[in-house]
Design goal:
The structure holds two protein chains of two kinds. Helix content of chain A is 11%, strand content 35%. Chain A has helices at 13-16, 200-219; strands at residues 9-12, 20-23, 29-39, 44-51, 60-66, 72-73, 78-80, 107-110, 115-128, 149-156, 167-171, 177-178, 182-185. In chain A, strands 1, 2, 3, 4, 5, 6, 7, 8, 9, 10, 11, 12 and 13 form a 13-stranded mixed β-sheet that branches. In chain A, strand 12 and strand 13 form a beta hairpin. In chain B, strands 1, 8, 9, 10, 11, 12 and 13 form a seven-stranded mixed β-sheet that branches. Chain B has a six-stranded mixed β-sheet with strand order 5-4-3-2-7-6. In chain B, a hairpin with a 3-residue loop joins strand 10 and strand 11 (180-182). Classes of the chains: A mainly beta, B mainly beta. The A-B interface holds A 1-4, 6-9, 19-20, 22-29, 71-79, 81, 125-128, 130-131, 143-144 and B 24-26, 28-30, 33, 36-37, 40-41, 85, 149-155, 187-195, 197, 199.
Amino acid sequence: VTGESEPFLLVRATELRGLPVVGITSGEALADVRDVVYSPGVGRVTGFSLNKHGGLLAGPLKKTLPLWAVWAVGRDAVMIPDDSAIDADESEDSNADDAPRNVLENQVLTDGGERLGEIDDLIVAAGIVGAPGPGRTPSPQGEHRVGDVVGYEVIADAHLQGRAGTRLLVPLPYTLAVSGETLMVPAAVEPFIRDDLAGFGAAVEEFRASLEGSDRSGSA
Amino acid sequence: VTSADEPTGNPLETANPLEAGGDSKSQDVSPGRELAQRQSLAPAENPPPAESVMKVSLVAALGRQVVSRATAETLGQIRGVVIDVPTYSVSAWQINKGRKAVLVDHEYVTGLGGAALVVDDEEHLRDAVTPEEVATIKGQLVLLGALVLSDAGNELGHVADATIDPVTAQLSSIQLDEMSFDAAHIRGFGSYALVAGLG
């Protein structure tokens, strides 16, 4: 988890596994997060698969908790407004126009044709989502929303700053091309790659600002 | 016995609810969203401000004798409290009466002083009825030591003490190991955690 100087709270998706899902008005732990549900086409976590509360031995729940039913994603718990939100229907999310899938071990390529590495984790913006509801209006581009996947943690190839085998953090643009096995990022990302979550939020913002700047200069 | 400030109405209108430290890592909240959050999280019921009186420490109150005003008999000792979340107040006192735990509603308390909790009559001692009362008696819903989460999903600590208005039974403040907050920020209290609307 990043420090206080970060512009927003960032967590690894794997760190969300096992967090309790807590009802704000009840104070009860209603389930545990089994994993995040990620839709790479929209660049967002769209929900959470669940286990019964009490650890791995408690067993999985069949349903998925949609992000729109969540009040906040924190360091220590996923908060829902009340206990009924745990039964929210994930099919009601009109923003989920891209099928979720597992991207771990997918390769990350630059549009310059270089292979950066394989995805080992997702970096997710966390914090207060806000009042729940299906089809929650997305924030304008430039404003991070809770659930946005702002970067990948990759196991680096030899090309990536000569640090083969190490874990590095690759910022993501607002939109990126995805196929079954490959996620494409701009070659301009390389100066913004980091090896520590502290400072990565700023790198993401700088990278995205640089892309917007290049778009403007290109269209002038 | 300790003193504490009065509750301040809508807890989410307080600019800085934390008296020390706090949940500073999740501040990416736009004014519009924050307003929506405040409206959404506003307590359903805000009791009127209590009169200014000396507040009682829950830790100090535990173990005090419970005495009947009608007979002057000692009925037991204070064991715990049942919390009414919407009014952030003590709805009933848990009393050890021999080996049995019973409750007395605060409305039958005539005084809470440095020596004793005085109830009007022993006949108002009763068994637990609601799920919250049963959980309290069973030790599943205990304020002292409870995990405290902010509504942003961040752990704030564990409850070390609470101050109570002895007249209204309203909780004034919740003390954690390294900080405290106005009890009006309590949003929920269950067997897993006490949730505070500080997000």
